[in-house]
Structures are given as C-alpha cells and as structure tokens.
Amino acid sequence: MAGSFNGAMVDQIIVKGARENNLKDISFSIPKNKFIVFTGVSGSGKSSMAFDTLFAEGQRRYVESLSSYARQFLGNMKRPDVDLIEGLSPSIAINQKAISHNPRSTVGTVTEIYDYLRLLFARIGHPHCPNCGREVIPQTSKQIVNQILERAVKEVGAVAPYRFFVFAPLIRDRAGDFRGLTENIRRQGYKWLRVDNKLIDLYSDFGIVKTNKHNIDAVIDRVSLTKDNLKQRDNAYNRLIDDVEVAMKMSNGLVIIGEIDDPSFEFPDHPANIFDTLYSENYACPVCNISLPAIEPRLFSFNSPQGACPECKGLGTKFQVDRNQVPEWKARYLESRFFNAPNDSVREEIEKLMIKENCEVCHGSRLNPEALSVHITGKNIYEVSRLSIDHLNEWVQSLNQVLESDKEKEIVVPINKEISARLEFLLAVGLDYLTLEREAGTLSSGESQRIRLASQIGTGLTGVLYILDEPTIGLHSRDNDRLIATLKKLKDLGNTVIVVEHDEDVIRNADEIVDFGPLAGKNGGEIVAQGSLADLKADKNSLTGKYLSGKMQVSAPSLGSELIYESESRPKKIVNDNKITVENCHQWNLKNINVDFPLNKLIVVTGVSGSGKSTLIHDTLYAGVKKHFDESYQGTIGQFDKLKGIDNLTEVLLVDQSPIGRTPRSNPATYTKVFDNIRELMAETTESAIRGYTNSRFSFNTKGGRCEVCQGQGQIKIEMQFLPDIYVTCDECHGTRFKDETLEVEYKGKNVAEILKLTVDEAHEFFKNITSIRKKLETIQEVGLGYLELGQPSNTLSGGESQRLKISRELVKRSEGHTLYVLDEPTTGLHFYDVDKLIKVLRQLVDKGNTVVVIEHNLDVIKNADWIIDMGPEGGEKGGFVVGTGTVEDIIKCPRSYTGQYLKKSFTS
Questions:
Q1: Fewest Cβ atoms closer than 10 Å to its Cβ: which of 166, 551, 672, 756?
Q2: Average pLDDT for 191-217
Q3: pTM, whole model, 2 decimals?
C-alpha cells in the first residue's frame, strides 16, 4: 500500500482498520491543514480514534525515529490496533490533564513568562536597600573619589580641614582572634586597624577575643583636606584614587570613608566620633552598610537558593500546626513529629491539626528581601507577577515610554518581544484574569489546557497534527469566539487541528465534522456521518445533526412565568421559602457580596471564567457548610462573615471530577456497591454451597479467591524510576483477578470475571430478575454510563465519567432529602443527548427534597435551572460581583449579564 502513496494522499490522513478499544474496524480519511471536530455521544469512540489511535501512532513513529540509546529511556511504545495510517504528521496532544500539582509550579513558570521577567529585572532592575529603601547604585573607583571630593568641598571650612579615614572592611560579624590576618596587614606596611569601632596600633600589645564576633577594617589612609588642598584637585584626586583602589582590592570591591567629628584641627589618633559611608563597586547601601548580591536572573527565582525566601524555601506558604488549637510549645513538638514521622498513620493524625498559611517572612512572595528590593517603575517582580494578564500586558507595553535611559530601552526590546507574544496568546484564549504567581495546581483542567494551547501557538510550528480534548471546558459562551479564532489561527499556520468537542459553536465553525456513534460502548465505535455542517444536518443517521438542525432538542422549559415549571424535566414547582445565606464573601476577588441559595431547587451558578464562581461555591459555600458538619475538615475555607440557614440541611456533598480511584482495584461495580450484591448472589449458587464459599471468596481485595500473584489486581505494577509506572497483565490469572477454583463457580453460565467484563447495559439485561442489582444498574444507565464495563479500572475513567458515577451512587441512596449537592461542570464530556439525561438525573435529586448547586456554562443546563446566580461582570479583579439572580426570565432581562444575552439568543434561535 505504501507504493500507492501519491500526491493526493499527502493532503489527507488515511486510516484503515482502526479497532482500538470499541472502534469497529473503522476506515476513513480526513483532510490535512483543516479544522476538524470529532463529536458523538459519550463513549462513542471519539477519544479512542483521536488519542489512542492517531496521537499514539504519531508518538510511536517519532520514538522509532530516535536512536536506540534514546529509545531505551522511552521504552517501546505499543502500536495501536490499526491496519494502516497514511499521511500522519508529527502529533501533539493537548488534553485535560492538570499541568502540575507541584506547589513550585506557577502560571508564570509554566508559560515561561516568569523566566523572561527574571531576565528583565536582572538587566534593567534598580536595586534598593531592603532596610531603608534607598536606591543602591554600583560605582567605579573614579565615581567614588569624585563623590568624596564633592563632599569635601561642602564640608571643608575656612580654617578647619575635612578629615576622614579610608578603611578597607575585612571581617564582618565573625568570631576568631585573626592573628594571621593582623600579621599579614602589618607586613604590608599598615600601622592601624579598626576593631569593633576602636582604632588599634598594630605595633602595640593588643589582643582580640577569640570567642566573640568582630568587625575589622584596615586603615588604608588618613586624609586631611583643606581649601588649599582642594585647589590642587589633581593631587588630592590621585592620592584618593590610589587609596580607594587599594581598599577595594583588599575587601572585594568595598571601601569605607570614615568622617571624623572632633573639635580639634589636628588629625587625632583616637577620634571622638567617626561617621562611616560605605561605597561599593558592586551593590551596597552606603547608609545601612548592607551589601546586595549580584543582580542575576537566579536572584529572582524562588526555586533557587539565591532567590528563595530562607524561611519557606520559596513555597510562599508554611504547613504548620494551628496555634489557635494548640499552644506554641506543643505545636513545635507536633511539627517535629510530623516531619520526622516513621509512618503515614502518625502523619495523618497530626495533619488534622495543621493548616497552610502564608509565610510570615515573605508574606507569600516566595522571594528573599534582596530580590524584592529590585524595582522597575516602582514595582518589584512579585508585584508585577500579581498583575492580571491584561494589566501585565499594559505594563509591559508601557515600559518603552516610561524608561528614561536609552540603554535600558535598547535592552528591553528583545525581552519585551518574547513576553508580549506569550501574553497575547493567553489573552487570545480568554485567560486575561489569571496572574503569573497563581499556583498551577489551582487551575481547572480547562484553564490548564488553554495555557498549553497558548504555548503551542507561540512555538510557530507548521505541519503538525494538534489533537485537543474539549478546550471549551470552563469557558463561557462569550469567550468561545476567541477560542475558535485561536484554533483557526493554529490551522492557518499550516497545521491540522482535530478537536474532540461537543460545544455547538465549535462544531458549527469546523471545516470537517466526524460524528461517531450511533451510541456508546459496544453500541458505538462507528462513524455515522462525516462532512460539512450542512452534510451532518441532512444525514438522518447523525444524532448530532438532529440536534444541530433542531429536529431534536435538549428538554428545556418555555419562557413565561406560568410555563416555566411545566416541562418534562420540571414535573412540579417546589414551594419552599427556606434558604442558605452567605454574608459578606470576600475571598480572593469576591467583592463583599451577600448571596442567597434557595433550598430544594436546582441552582446554576454561571459567569465568565475567573468571575468568582468556584471561590463562592467551592471555597465558601461548600467549605463553610462542610466545616459546620465536620469540625475536622482541613480544606481551604473562604472568608465570609456569616452563614445562615445551615440548620435546614443534614449533609453536604461535593460531586467533582476527581478520580474515584487511582489503581485498577477500584471500578464502577465496587464504587456503586453493586459488586457487593453480585458477590452475595455468587455465594448463593449451588456450587458455592457445595464448596463452602462465602461472598468474600469472590472479592479481589481479600485473600481466598483472588489471584495472589497480582493480589487481585489483574495487573502487576512495574516501577520505572524516573518514568511513570506501568501495569502489565498478570501471567498467572491472565487479567481475571481470581484463582481458577473461584472461576469454576458460575451464575447463568458466567463466572465472576466474565460478569465484570459485562457493560452496565449488558449486566442490566443479565440481572433483570435480581431487583437489588437491577436498580443500582439503572441509576448508572440514567447518567448515561451504560457503556462502561462493570470492572473497568477507575483510573481509566475521564473526569466527567467519574463525576457522573458519583451522581449515580447518590441516586441509589434512600435519601430523606435536605442534602446539599455541589457539582462543578457536570456536562464535561457530554453530548447533547447525554446532557438531556443529566438534567433529568439532577431533577431527581431535587425532587427527593435535596438542593443541587451546579457551576455550569452549558446553556441547556442553565435553561433548566430553578434559580440562577450570575457572577461577573468580567474575570479577575473586574469580577467577584453578583451580576444578577433569579429565574431564566430574570437573567435574560438583566442588561449587564452576558449569560442573559446568550440565553436570549438561544431561545430566539
């Protein structure tokens, strides 16, 4: 086939026989250098094609092109299950994984902007004394002598001379008797030393106390200048230049001029008072006698010993025992035990008393005082890092206008170019509200993905295959246009851009759409439609096309107060005046707001990225209520004055996208507890009764029936040192997790391992007569996860799948109501078809008497809210306000609400 690779094929990526995961022997082609969207219901095979096939093969081919020496560190990459891929370009994946949870990683370091800022401050920064704030300027010996002579002209009297010592500072705050040093100074022909501000004759009988710390200066010269001397300036200048250069040579660039304040006219051997002025050819404060280190980029790095705060070692925070709970002496003891604990159990116990607070020395700046004392236009590097991206861009652009030195202006040009380019890309993807000092671990998956997207645009590469996974996550409808323009710019550079996406705006702007389906899991894995937007709309097999054409719609209420509660998704209007009120929220960018959350309703909190939604809901509402019910809760609690109405609740649950398990031991069956019922059923079979097996025999987490070689994991973890750990299939049980004897017990012709291989939909049919199992499986189906295998390892689930699995677990519970559920963008990874299911599930929780608070941008979810809280109006410092609250109609009528404007467009369209 390689021989048929002609010119026409160069313009296409051709795939033949793709069978990775649930893909059903797919063959298709897509044009290169185009903006392409892969869409379809959740689990239909989009990611299997984009990431597990195209990207994986691109990476594998790249690794094979390297030398055998390089490949030994990367390992042999698995070839995707595909017959042929032609026309494949070098590939880069930009997926949803978080950038880094390392506290040393920030937005500035990830984008490399902070590296260029360090260079900028090192080259044109103005150092100041960290003690008195006076600007410190390095001087040449010539400049120092001219200053001394200028001072002499001012101070010399008609009769009284200007008298001073020229000192070479040799020892500062060090203990010892320094016999060798004093002998060496005497041999060089010097007669006097100053030890601890006392002048000592080197030829006299003196001693220096060895155990004390001392300051020692060599007296280089004793100078007395009169008006007559100053008239012969050249003589005075030549003498002083020699003195200063000798002193600097002896003391590594330092010289002290000690002015004598004494009533006599002669030069006294032991003056009453000496006033010192420190000069330096390096950096030193002449008043405070503080020497500054060399101004180099590493001085501004909090990951370097030269720049990091000595107290917190550059972290900006300290993890310590809460002094409000424990007295100081005990706190220190517990901290010592925590950091030297022999095992995790001791550490976990002490951790309950510990809190994370800003470092009391650097106040969160991470840097030492010397680094913070270097300014550009009156700001230090930390103050610049705290500017939002849009304000930072303005500051950088203004430098050429505000700098006075032509030399500095010339230095700024190349550095400015690099910083500005990166800032422009961040602005282009809607991240204008972020700050460089923000920890990377606090970013949402959508924010981190858009940062990597901005970085890729900045590289200027062409001929690359970019694959993105839902870049619209966390993005308000208002900002979609900027993101789409960015993706098109990436295409216009000469790249192929494949986006796995469900957002309607992105799909409508694609050059080519590939619709996977028709449904999920084993019922998916096919391409049901491919072509332009018009092609999809006209294709009767395309589920996506039906939603785009309006033939199918996500259940939504009609506008009008009488009809707002009469849709299928709103079976009844809940009348309840109870509410939770949070007063004076002022965490991060929240502007002292008061917010009401009416109970027994579906509440949607929306607003542009960075407007304060997560701060209000996660850090304030959830954390405040959680702390009320659980005194040991150690999470961050936002700042607010009062939290009213908690008595109307019995529990609060955060249903986020964090993994439900990090190892293959956890799976949907164990997480939803349906496996408990399955094990009981297996233990009730005749074969189990004969063999004396109990339900524990069918557990892969306990000894007995599990395979002991892999300890019931089905896989064996191989530690790869500096590479990620990998899992290989167990040779003993071949991935079944159980002993052969356990697998001999069957129910309806299937053993426990075969049952775990069933999808939820297949298991629902298989166990249709077992009520306890069937009901739990139905809740998983209701959230659109019927395609998952019961035993699918949890560490392979996406964030959206994990979140929906958590919702299904809550639906199983016999709830008495009065629970507050908090969800963060549950529509992540959901097709229109799946969003419809999700809305019905959330409504079930509300109908049981619970309150559901959802952070969301999806307009279909917002339309179905009982109550909307719209944050904004912008992100970052321009956000933190409540723009509007109320029903859908109320938000549409709010002129300041971007959400209202897009809701109105959605209803009218």
A1: 551
A2: 92
A3: 0.80
